[in-house]
Amino acid sequence: MSRRIVLADFFSGCGGTSRGFADAGIVPELAIDWDPDAAASFRLNFPTTAILERDIRDLEVDEVEAALQLPGDPIRLFAGCAPCQPFAGHRHEPTHRDSRSFLLLEFLRFVEALNPELIFVENVPGMQRLSASRGPLAEFVDEVSKTHHVSHGTISSADYGVPQTRRRLVLVASRLGPIDIPRATHGPDTDNPHSTVREWISGLPPLAAGQADPEVESHRAMRLSKLNLARIRATPEGGDRRNWPEHLWPDCHRGGFDGHTDVYGRLSWDQPAPTLTTKCISYSNGRFGHPDQDRALSVREAARLQTFPTEFRFFGSLASQARQIGNAVPVVLARRFGDHLMEHAETFAGTPTGSAQGPCAPGSDRDPEITRQAA
User: Fold this and answer.
1) Dihedral pair phi/psi, residue 38, rounded to 5°
2) Do residues 331 and 306 touch, judged by C-beta distance below 8 A?
3) What values do phi and psi take at 10, rounded to 5?
4) How far apart are CA 271 and CA 158, in angstroms?
5) Tell me: the pLDDT tens digits for 117-139?
6) Are 272 and 297 in contact (CB under 8 A)?
7) Distances (CA, A) of 72 to 2, 169, 218
């Protein structure tokens, strides 16, 4: 009997994981996140998906179980892609246990109780080093391995079609049968070159710092001070503060300081971007300057570099939208893993792979609207 795959998206954020898996044919049935702006963004894009806007520490297993009482005996996929910053909930003071370590083990509580057929985890590679004796990943893998086949490793998102050199720890687990991490789709050992900044943002209308485009939602750039405007004008494509005359140097970079060369940097058109962070629209917080316009990335450009389609909507202030985008799993990366999980389920459970629609369908990773404009 054919069985569909349904997703419970823990730490769903604005929905990067859910969108990528949905493009692969997986049905997002449940989202869980405590941030009100991220939950509002998720609702804008997934109006039929149930959302539990809760701190995971206050969430009971039976609430998730009740939300997943679905007809047809579907295959359940649990995704646990927690924000990589130390976690502080509504009612608790941040501690070491309120960090990435704690979040992964909270996710484990639901995995152990509800025993889903499939599991997906994505986080920063440093999650492996949070404890000198027994890290959270080792504990998670030990427990999940009692019931599931498990595979994990560190990958570059660029090797899966994302225009970022974003390194991530990924884990997949299955009760259906042996599973591995999907092979790279882009890069030197494949038929596809790495995707570039140009491919994803060159078709968007030009902006000045502090300006918003009236036609493209969230295509808005932060203001720049006169000093930072002078700095970015002195920075060539792909350059950074090392290209400036001395009178533009920040005080903290004088006296022979040569670290942090990505801050105040411009992106290169024909290379992947560096990792987008929660400050991805701030010129002074990374290599987030537009390649040739005198401003930082707009919210929409940052979203494009995280491979969100143009129609994906974001709720909240500029800073909130940037935080949601920086915390998200890139949509195309989730799509690659979604395809892999669909094929795995087809092999071991006779699940149809289905046919995905939309901008991330096979052979069309890029938003058609942007592709046409760029052409």
Assistant:
1) -65, -40
2) yes
3) -75, 145
4) 10
5) 999 999 988 766 544 456 788 89
6) no
7) 9, 33, 39
Pairing of strands 118-123, 167-174: antiparallel
Structure tokens at 184: 């790279």
> What pLDDT digit, counting tens, does each position of 178-225 carry?
999 999 999 999 999 999 999 999 999 999 999 999 999 999 999 999
Can you list the alpha helix ranges (DSSP code H) found in the chain? 16-23, 36-45, 61-67, 100-114, 136-144, 197-201, 226-233, 299-305, 318-327, 331-349, 368-374
Residue 220 CA to residue 209 CA, distance in Å, equals 8
Helix-helix angle 100-114:136-144, to 10 degrees: 10
Signed CA dihedral, 83, 84, 85, 86: sign only: positive
Q: Cα 118 to chain center, whole Å?
A: 19
pTM for the model stands at: 0.88
Active-site residue, from 84, 252, 280, 360: 84
**Could you say which of 3.40.50.150, 3.40.1390.30, 3.10.150.10, 3.60.21.70 is the CATH number of the domain covering 5-193+329-366?**
3.40.50.150
Taking CA atoms, 254 is separated from 74, 257, 258, 347, in Å, by 60, 6, 9, 60
- pLDDT, mean over the chain: 87
Reading the block at residue 283, the tokens are 């010129």
Residue 84 known to be catalytic: yes
Residue type for position 286 = G
